[in-house]
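ligand=NAP
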Amino acid sequence: MPKNILIQFDCDPQPSTFDAVVAVDAGADVLLRHGGVTPETVAPLVHGAMFTRGGEDLKATAIFVGGSDAAAAEAVAARVRKTFFGPVRVGVLVDPNGANTTASAAVIAAARHVALGPGCHAVVLGGTGPVGQRVARLLAGKAARVTLVSRSLDRAAAAVRRIEAAVPHASITACGADRPAIATADVIVAAGAAGVTLLDEAGRRGATAARVIIDLNAVPPAGVAGILATDKARPEGQTVLYGALGVGGTKMKIHKAAIARIFADTAAFLDAEELLAIGERL
Ligand SMILES: NC(=O)c1ccc[n+]([C@@H]2O[C@H](COP(=O)([O-])OP(=O)(O)OC[C@H]3O[C@@H](n4cnc5c(N)ncnc54)[C@H](OP(=O)(O)O)[C@@H]3O)[C@@H](O)[C@H]2O)c1
């Protein structure tokens, strides 16, 4: 049996150690780690993955695309996909800064308590960041009515346009942080920057219909007042609360299952939607 080789394409100068450790724990025998990868430089690296092993052995080579700049990583991932032709391809996982696995885990947590669909109103705070945009996209893909909130209505509108392009039937609205539509939200996901409070005590009191509130920020102070990072389906009145570590376990399971999948299926190209599907099957 050939060794499982995971080739890490990271847009940052130094490839992520987090992604490397998870890869080894999930079954990679050998890591080839490339930093500073761009769409212009990635094609020869992909050729090296495609043309070295033949037949069934090709399965034992896979690619991970990551980095702290999600847009840059997506551009690299798109170029990787374009470089493949016919059956000469290897499995690919795209998870810049953990955004896809984290967003998938958040949506899975919400779905444990609320039926995601047209009857569900979901508010995504910090919705313009990599994690927030993916949470909003996945919720829209489940046909929930989504409100994407930003401090800037223009930035929120730009994020909404990107999501509408990816999910043609999305029911999604941009909203400024001054009127975040909290009162009618069944689901609230706070995906703001680390250490930033997006919903304070008074804001929480306005969330009168919320069945689930998820705060993805693990760095004090909390993104949502009163939520602990370790909260995992902690009930409070009619609402169930999740903190960053509370969804982190599911995120790690999805990440490891995804690594296993890209070593099993050379056709796998795992973005947020595919990772959500993997998480739903766990
Ligand atoms: N649990 C996990 O495993 C895990 C994994 C990855 C990430 N995370 C966490 O998930 C959260 C989102 O990650 P991300 O990378 O998407 O975050 P990010 O890009 O750093 O920030 C998300 C959004 O927060 C808003 N924001 C930034 N500074 C702010 C401020 N001072 N006040 C109010 N809003 C501010 C910005 O939106 P606007 O400028 O448009 O308002 C930004 O687009 C972070 O807290 C991160 O630590 C958790």
